[in-house]
Sequence to fold (151 residues):
Amino acid sequence: MTTEEDIIQILSEQVKGYRLLHDILKKEKICLVNINADEVAEISKEKDTVVMRLRLLEEERVRLVNKFTHDNEIPNTVNLRELAKLTGNSMFVSLRSQLLSLLQTIEELNRFNSILIDRSLNYFKTTTNFISTFAEESMTQDTGVLLSKET
Fold:
């Protein structure tokens, strides 16, 4: 397999990984709306695994692109659009487009989920403060001695 084919294979794997992350974020959104804390915790573990895999794929992609530029004596690093021009392979443009679309959608979902989490935390804080006012009242004791020292 050539370096060009290896890069395309890694990019395809990244597209699959980002699609999986997108699906996980959609599940997380549903769980956040339904305030299902246990499921959110499970989804968080899934996200961590997928993100770790995506990080490894990105490192491999960078390594392969560097190898390609070195092997072809290209003085600086190249992006996917330049790779398409250099190789004449339109797959780079297609994969680039898919990745950009997925990343934008993931960013939007992340922003929305972050808002849901913030609202849930505020709801929890408000509820906790409300309940604690009753707990403080029941904890006060009616008996006791108050001493004062006058000088």
About this structure: Residues 91-139 form the longest helix (49 residues). The chain has one domain: 3-117. Residues 15 and 35 are 30 Å apart (CA to CA).
